[in-house]
Amino acid sequence: MVKDFQKQFNRLHILIDAAVISGSYFLAWYILFGLYHEKVGRLSFAIYMQALFFIVPLYLLLNALFGLYAPKRTKGRRAEFAGILKVNTIGVLLFTLVLYLGSKNAILYHFSRRLVLVFYLTCVVWMTIERNVIRSFLRRMRRLGFNQKNILLVGYGEAAKGYIDRILTNAEWGYQINGILDDTHEPGFSYHGIRIIGAVNELQPLLERNALDEIAITLPLSQYEKLKNIVSICEKSGVHTKFIPDYYGVIPTIPYMEDVAGMPVINIRHVPLTEFYNAAAKRLVDIIGGIVGLVVFSPIMLLAAILVKISSPGPIIFKQERVGLHQKKFWMYKFRSMRQQVDSEEKKGWTVKKDPRVTWIGRILRKTSLDETPQFFNIVRGDMSLVGPRPERPYFVEKFKEEIPHYMIKHQVRPGLTGWAQINGLRGDTSIQKRIEYDLYYIENWTLGFDFKIILLTFVRGFINKNAY
């Protein structure tokens, strides 16, 4: 059974973690005192190694607290890496606190603080490598048919079909669907090879055979009394049970729960940036990044300003009304890339291929995205962020909010100079629907690390926009 395998694997994983933590600590000691043949100082190698009696149990406990021993079937690499960073950061802070509080002790007083810092870096690197190797090994084993988790679906409808589609697409998760129990279809009916094997009232005999790891209930909430009975049967059997709601198309990918005096409440959408500390951290990064951007790009901006001025009559900076955070309108700045036009035409007009309105320097600025650099001023002012969904003109916002589901969700965060959709090629004349899907993923999965990744990829993949006209 998978449960037995999981227990055995977790024991092995703890031993591997202990070895990796110890090895990372030894490597840190070697880098400081062995690699460059520095003097160890007043503490011997043996004394430094004794610290492992404190470090290893602490880190293993933190690993457990931050869910690093949870099954890896559907947990992403990014979430696991975030857990590794939390474990090591808290571990080092506690380590440092012990050294500070015990500074009157001769050993703790002379203990190398540099060693603590180097250990932090080596441990993060080696724990990440270790867990990715384990993840790859487990996924390969599951693809080959080992370590499979046997699941039975109760109920057949859109939720069941959506769940089956995902299980069959991701063989590395290691889920084996043994069949479906349903009262609305005859036994033998199948969906993608998954057969209906009986009616819902046959659940208890199947559970008594003790051959299942999970029950996934996909019945609609309209069958409330039947749902209560099924949950009662499942809980008596001791088999892990989960509920896949038939309204999954309404809620987002990461809903979050609240406990309201014992009543579970599902929030429709989780937006991390609505939390004060997240918003404050992002704003601080934006202010620093905006100022740095203005300084770094100032020579290019000066040259662009001169070329725009001599290319055609009109202002150097083009300002356009856009819709931002909480649907508030603001003036977004760009280098003018077109000849001047009437406001009523500009508000409703898309740029088309070989657009005669675009000047020669404007075509270069658009293609290289350098026409966007004045938006560093918008970032410093607070109208925009370094990273976020791109802002749109009021005319198109009114149009798209009626045509594209979830379009207005993007206004729960500040618009960005670059974004997750943009670095995935969704710029210029591309699908608005697809852009919104990427924007929603960014909004629901925001972290500072995600922002830095997008900024880095913006530079790595270049500023050239093949869809810019």
Automatic annotation (TrEMBL):
Broad class of the protein's primary localization: membrane
Membrane topology, record value: Multi-pass membrane protein
GO CC list: membrane
Entry-linked Pfam families: Bac_transf (PF02397), CoA_binding_3 (PF13727)
GO terms assigned for molecular function: phosphotransferase activity, for other substituted phosphate groups
Keywords of the record: Membrane, Transferase, Transmembrane, Transmembrane helix
Residues spanning the membrane: 12-33, 45-69, 81-103, 115-134, 287-308
Domain of life: Bacteria
Compartments (UniProt record): Membrane
Residue ranges occupied by any Bacterial sugar transferase domain in the UniProt entry: 282-461
Family: Belongs to the bacterial sugar transferase family.
Name of the protein in question: Undecaprenyl-phosphate glucose phosphotransferase
Organism expressing this protein natively: Stomatobaculum longum
